[in-house]
Design goal:
The protein is an all-alpha fold. The protein has one domain. The longest helix is centred in the middle third of the chain and has 48 residues. The protein contains 2 helices and no strands. The mean pLDDT is 91.
Length: 65
Protein backbone atom coordinates (compact mmCIF):
# COMPACT_ATOMS: atom_id res chain seq x y z
CA UNK A 1 0.00 0.00 0.00
CA UNK A 2 2.83 2.42 0.85
CA UNK A 3 4.66 1.37 -2.27
CA UNK A 4 1.61 2.16 -4.39
CA UNK A 5 1.26 5.57 -2.75
CA UNK A 6 4.95 6.28 -3.35
CA UNK A 7 4.62 5.27 -7.00
CA UNK A 8 1.58 7.51 -7.46
CA UNK A 9 3.36 10.46 -5.82
CA UNK A 10 6.43 9.87 -7.97
CA UNK A 11 4.29 9.78 -11.12
CA UNK A 12 2.55 13.01 -10.11
CA UNK A 13 5.90 14.74 -9.49
CA UNK A 14 7.15 13.59 -12.88
CA UNK A 15 4.01 14.89 -14.61
CA UNK A 16 4.33 18.24 -12.85
CA UNK A 17 7.98 18.47 -13.86
CA UNK A 18 7.15 17.65 -17.48
CA UNK A 19 4.39 20.26 -17.49
CA UNK A 20 6.78 22.90 -16.15
CA UNK A 21 9.45 21.99 -18.68
CA UNK A 22 6.95 22.02 -21.54
CA UNK A 23 5.69 25.49 -20.65
CA UNK A 24 9.26 26.74 -20.26
CA UNK A 25 10.17 25.29 -23.67
CA UNK A 26 7.14 26.90 -25.29
CA UNK A 27 8.06 30.29 -23.83
CA UNK A 28 11.64 29.89 -25.00
CA UNK A 29 10.51 28.94 -28.52
CA UNK A 30 8.18 31.95 -28.68
CA UNK A 31 10.98 34.22 -27.51
CA UNK A 32 13.44 32.88 -30.07
CA UNK A 33 10.80 33.19 -32.80
CA UNK A 34 10.02 36.78 -31.81
CA UNK A 35 13.71 37.74 -31.90
CA UNK A 36 14.16 35.99 -35.26
CA UNK A 37 11.18 37.74 -36.85
CA UNK A 38 12.28 41.05 -35.33
CA UNK A 39 15.73 40.76 -36.90
CA UNK A 40 14.20 39.69 -40.21
CA UNK A 41 11.75 42.59 -40.21
CA UNK A 42 14.42 45.11 -39.26
CA UNK A 43 16.69 43.79 -42.02
CA UNK A 44 13.97 44.13 -44.66
CA UNK A 45 13.14 47.62 -43.40
CA UNK A 46 16.81 48.67 -43.50
CA UNK A 47 17.36 47.30 -46.97
CA UNK A 48 14.26 49.06 -48.28
CA UNK A 49 15.64 52.36 -46.91
CA UNK A 50 18.92 52.09 -48.81
CA UNK A 51 19.06 54.36 -51.84
CA UNK A 52 22.76 54.33 -52.73
CA UNK A 53 22.22 51.77 -55.51
CA UNK A 54 19.65 54.07 -57.11
CA UNK A 55 22.19 56.89 -57.00
CA UNK A 56 24.83 54.69 -58.62
CA UNK A 57 22.42 53.71 -61.41
CA UNK A 58 21.57 57.35 -62.07
CA UNK A 59 25.27 58.24 -62.24
CA UNK A 60 25.91 55.32 -64.61
CA UNK A 61 23.04 56.41 -66.88
CA UNK A 62 24.31 59.99 -66.84
CA UNK A 63 27.80 58.78 -67.75
CA UNK A 64 26.42 56.72 -70.65
CA UNK A 65 24.43 59.63 -72.05
Amino acid sequence: RRRLRAQVEYAQRQRALQRRLRSRNVLLALGIGAVTFGIYGYTLYSVSQERFLDDLEQEAEAARA
